[in-house]
Amino acid sequence: MVIDILEFNPEKIDKMLTAGKKIGYWGFIIHIEKSDLAKTVQKISTESKIPAVPLIEIDKYGTALSRDTYVIVGAEATNETEFRKSLRNPKISLITIDPNDMAKIINKQTINIAKQYYKFIEIPIKPLLYAQPTERHKILTTIRNTLRLISNKKIRIIFTTRATNIYEMITPRQLRAVLLEIGFKDITIKKILKQNPLELIITPYEITTIKDKNTLKVLEKILELGRRAGLEPAT
Description:
This protein has 235 residues and is of the alpha/beta class. It is built from 12 helices and 7 strands. Helix 2 crosses helix 12 and helix 11 packs antiparallel against helix 12.
């Protein structure tokens, strides 16, 4: 029961959700560039009966969201200063770090700070999958050098595909194989692919007043699927 983060593409998102369900995903977080697309994601999820929730990046697109709009708020960090700033921003739940930037951001000091906040750290694997051999080796080395730090049980790490079409999607088994190749243990991989994404989805649910019945149904379905898989959000 794995959750992935996809990029919103109005012409392809329906096929991506359908394909994703067939290859083993049970829910999705959809990155949108405008807050008014949150309702579109909710509608697509309801009609397709495939759980999907919207994600928007605060630094690029602001926070003009109505009280009844469910959305995960994220930010991209390209350096240590941005990472520290995002950790301390109470509106942000997800911080995205390109694996090429991990060496500039992940260290003992920043990880110790991250332990103090209820934040989730996303590492998209697309740069790794599509890199040339020499560059791929460099990225793998970078991730492996931070492996001990990001494997800490108090760090909520998530690896995603950030696919923009069905051809960039990979199966949960393939994603797991990549994480094993990097050096993660099985128990950590379960948290990365299942437990942490589930808790990320529930986080805004706890702090936002939701009035839309369809949104509530999507979240309730995600929780139920999680429970069936033996997952429970941390309290």
